[in-house]
Design brief:
Order of helices and strands: EHHEEH
Helix content: 25-40%
Structural class: alpha+beta
Strand content: 15-25%
Strand order of the largest sheet: 1-3-2
CATH topology of the domain at 20-69: Arc Repressor Mutant, subunit A
Radius of gyration: 17 Å
Largest sheet: 3 strands, antiparallel
Number of strands: 3
CATH architecture of the domain at 20-69: Orthogonal Bundle
Shape: globular
Distance between the termini: 60 Å
């Protein structure tokens, strides 16, 4: 039986979900940076990372912060 009720909007489409954190390769893709430059930024303290288990993640806020700073 077909009803004209709207579908449940509570299920987000995968493309609508923004990442809260990036792994190193994902951060590199999102920023258009190479691994070496990304690790340089991490070592110099420009980008902060978090460890979750054995994974190194970069919070999405760090991506925004870097963009707002203009890479300085």
């Amino acid at each position: 039986m077909h009803t004209d009720k709207p579908r449940n909007q509570s299920h987000a489409v995968a493309s609508d979900i923004k990442p809260l954190a990036y792994n190193i390769p994902g951060f590199c893709r999102a920023m258009g940076l190479g691994r070496s430059k990304t690790y340089d930024l991490v070592r110099s303290g420009v980008i902060k990372t978090v460890k979750v288990g054995g994974r190194t993640l970069i919070p999405a806020e760090e991506l925004i912060k870097l963009l707002n700073q203009g890479g300085q």
